[in-house]
Design a protein that fits this description.
With about 100 residues, this protein is an alpha+beta fold. It has a single domain, classed as RRM (RNA recognition motif) domain (Alpha-Beta Plaits, 2-Layer Sandwich). The strands form two sheets. The chain has a four-stranded antiparallel sheet. A two-stranded antiparallel ribbon has the order 4-5. It starts with a helix and ends in a 12-residue tail after the last strand.
């Protein structure tokens, strides 16, 4: 894979931050950030994408596959799509500011 194609792939790995009570607590206590990522992404791609996009040093990455919930719409049974999230532990002193406020 060429360098430009690899860089384009890394730009699409992260889908966005996953904001919840748990992710906020992890950010405060353990310097971790939670992202929604592509289902075919692996740990090394997530690490490289975070370091490329946010210019921070990443210590560790853990990924979790989340199954979609089964939902009913009247008599029809459906399923929300499954997705993947990544817990990214940042190096000591590193921080990601999503709002851009300084």
């Amino acid at each position: 894979m060429s360098a430009t194609a690899n860089k384009e792939r890394l730009m699409t790995v992260l889908l966005g931050p996953h904001v919840s009570e748990k992710s906020t607590r992890l950010a405060d206590e353990h310097n971790q950030v939670v992202f929604r990522v592509r289902r075919d992404a692996n740990k090394s791609e997530v690490r490289k994408a975070v370091e490329l996009l946010f210019e921070v040093k990443v210590d560790d990455v853990q990924v979790v596959n989340c199954r979609g919930k089964i939902k009913r719409f009247g008599g029809n049974i459906g399923r929300r799509p499954s997705w993947k999230k990544a817990y990214v532990t940042l190096a000591e002193g590193e921080d990601i500011d999503f709002l851009g406020a300084e």
